[in-house]
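Exercise 3.2. Students should predict the tertiary structure of the chain below and write it as structure tokens, then compare their answer with the key that follows.

Predict this chain's 3D structure.
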Amino acid sequence: MEDSIVKAPDGGWGWMVLLGCFVIQGFSYAFPKAVSVYFKELMYDFHVGYSDTAWISSIMLAMLYGTGPVSSILVNRFGCRPVMLVGGLLAASGMITASFSRNIIELFLTAGVVTGLGLSLNFQPSLIMIGRYFDKRRPLANGLAAAGSPVFLSVLSPVGQILLETFGWRGGFLIMGGLLLNCCTCAAMMRPLLNKKQEESKDKHEVERMLPATTANKDFTKYKGNLKASKFKCKLLDFSVLKNKGFVIYTIAKFFLILGVFIPPILLVNYAKDIEVPDTEAAFLLSIIGFIDIFARPSCGIIAGFRWIRPYTIYFLSLAVLFNGLTDICGARASDYNTLVVFCVFFGVSYGMIGALQFEVLMAIVGSHKFSSAIGLVLLIEAVAVLLGPPSAGRLVDAFKNYQLIFYMAGSEVLFFCPVLGYHHLLLLKTTKAKVGEPEGQS
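Answer key:
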């Protein structure tokens, strides 16, 4: 990989990279939830049910997660910056094309598949760039970048409602597609890290290219050949990470977490509108989650970065998931706007904690050198979960006309994460004891 042996600077241009990652993660996580403000209008226009409109967000999220291995291969082959530039163009073109859709299937293909793929090609490289630019400050950097999601959710949701009321859903989709072009600007900020030898070599060959062909052609041809060979030596996707039991258990646990964690924010606005909450106030519920999340993620990142906390971030994540699952189950009793606001506050805190810790824990399990391949495989498994979760919840609402069921469903799925990850803790403890008990010569 282009900068695998370069020491993370923990600052400098890294802060600009972090700003770009903040915007990209904001769009990637918030966009699939923010489009839910258009669902009611889409139901009337295309004569479809809750489960049908929920597929738009689910497909978008499934593409965001499911194309992870493709993103890993492209990043390992071409680097982060070009992949992210293409992703920004795809995400924008998907939403612009969706504004001309004539039926729900065309929306699935444009807003769901194309925009989701574009977001994926931005999202995963942004995580990789944070890992390359930050080491000691990585928990803080992850927390600050992850704060982009709640900031954008709190902004995009009311903006989407205003666009819907002013221009209709087609005009709203067109303008939101234009907003996604900002991902290209952020991609341009993803400067690859080079060590001193690489910088000197780069400068030398730039000079040689300006010299007459007779003096520089041979050396430059040799340089191109070496560069090409080194690129092909790089593994496009490292499957050896599957031998890590901790990684496998973490992936299984994340499947159950993702199965339920996106259900409440995706269906919350529709639920509020159904109990006769005004449209603007219903959209504002997502802004409440986002506003609370803004403070929860960086705060959690700062706490996780403390020396006496960082070795136990996996326990910290388990606590956050437990909090989120119990919040979902208690949220089933919310039956008016005020109780929904209380639910959103607690959900925002727990959701922010999960967002700040999940990738930090994964990087701690597999190491930064295998993170690009590990995140691709994890996101692929999560894609299946996100494709099943919200539509199945929408199907429950269509069948029983009872929103309480989706809160119980989401909470129980999220809580299943805890015993699965608990098995990882037990396995780690047994492995540690076994190593301690080994004679010195056998270790």
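Discussion points: The two ends are 32 Å apart (CA to CA). Residues 3 and 88 are 23 Å apart (CA to CA).
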